[in-house]
Amino acid sequence: MKHISVMTPCYNEEGNIQNIYQEVKKQFDGLPQYTYEHIFIDNCSNDMSRQILREMANKDKNVKVILNARNFGPNRSGTYGMLQATGDALICIVCDLQDPPEMIPIFLQKWEEGYKVVMGQKTKSKENFLMFQVRKLYYKIMELLSETEHLENVTGYGLYDKEVLKTIRWMDDPDPYIRGLVTELGYKWCLVEYTQRKREKGKSSYNFNSYFDFAITGLTHVSKKPLRIVTLAGISMSVASFIFAIIYLVMKLIYWDSFEMGMAPVLIGMFLLGSGQLACIGVIGEYIGAILTRITKRPMVIEEERINFEEP
């Protein structure tokens, strides 16, 4: 009998934890050919989430809980939770029930057909319309800059075979970009369309900084194109500056008495070059930061407590 792991990251989700647990349990009650474990990883919540998780784990040994020592960010915490899975396949599903648990049997069916990765692709969403459009723009930008195929409207909700997880563990990246790895690693994958629900309870912990950080992490992990763009921009600006300098010199030589150089072009040029240099330094700095994260060998997460896991 095949064993399936389900992983749910949570942070201040006291109103949703019981619901997602019941919904997942309901799905596997209708799938007697599988056994399952439900892993919750809590990113140092400051509401009643931890107490609820402890009570659930005491009542149901299929529930396994990891309590982080501090908030390590959604990407690191979620990835760490994925790597704790012991099943033949892992299903990632968020706690807020925006991603429907009813997709679990479909994911498993596709997995049985031979796909190593089965990703949910949201074609419609009941979330804020403006935010949905911003996300679509982000995916378009990532698709243009990515060196491999980039999956559009994919959040990480889906199924991953244990072979995929084994490769991710071997890579030992403390802050990986899972969505980009799906196509980069070359495993057989497929997409399953769904409509994302509206969040019913609680408030999302994601803010602009979280989205921006995740976007930069994804960009530095899947592509070196920004560095090439910076290089080309520098060369182009140098050529343009040289051409303008020649034009100004010729104009001054021809109209020596009447041609005024003026301070405006000088100031505009200085500000343009200065802003361009700052942007270039910023792009290079992001890549240096990604390198620093890799070489410092800091742990992805420090656990405060784990419940219902077997001792190694």
Label this structure with key terms.
single chain, 312 residues, alpha/beta, Spore Coat Polysaccharide Biosynthesis Protein SpsA, Chain A, 2 domains, 8-stranded mixed β-sheet, 19% strand
List the helices and strands and how they pair.
Elements: E1 2-10, H1 17-29, E2 34-42, H2 49-59, E3 63-68, H3 74-83, E4 89-92, H4 104-112, E5 117-125, H5 129-145, E6 154-161, H6 162-171, H7 178-185, E7 189-196, H8 208-222, H9 225-254, H10 264-295, E8 303-307
Helix pairs in contact: 9-10
Mind explaining what this structure looks like?
This protein folds into 2 domains: 2-204 and 299-307, Spore Coat Polysaccharide Biosynthesis Protein SpsA, Chain A (Alpha-Beta Complex), CATH 3.90.550; 225-295. The protein is built from 10 helices and 8 strands. The chain has an 8-stranded mixed beta sheet with strand order 7-5-6-4-1-2-3-8, sandwiched between helices. The longest helix has 32 residues, at 264-295. It has helices spanning 17-29, 49-59, 74-83, 104-112, 129-145, 162-171, 178-185, 208-222, 225-254, 264-295; strands spanning 2-10, 34-42, 63-68, 89-92, 117-125, 154-161, 189-196, 303-307. It is an alpha/beta fold and 312 residues long.
> What do the pLDDT scores average to?
82
User: What percentage of residues falls in helices of 4 or more residues?
Assistant: 40-55%
Largest sheet: number of strands, sense, barrel closure: 8 strands, mixed
Low-confidence stretches: none
Quickly count the helices. 10
Radius of gyration: 25 Å
CATH topology of the largest domain: Spore Coat Polysaccharide Biosynthesis Protein SpsA, Chain A
- The main sheet orders its strands as 7-5-6-4-1-2-3-8
Q: Strand content of the residues, in percent?
A: 15-25%
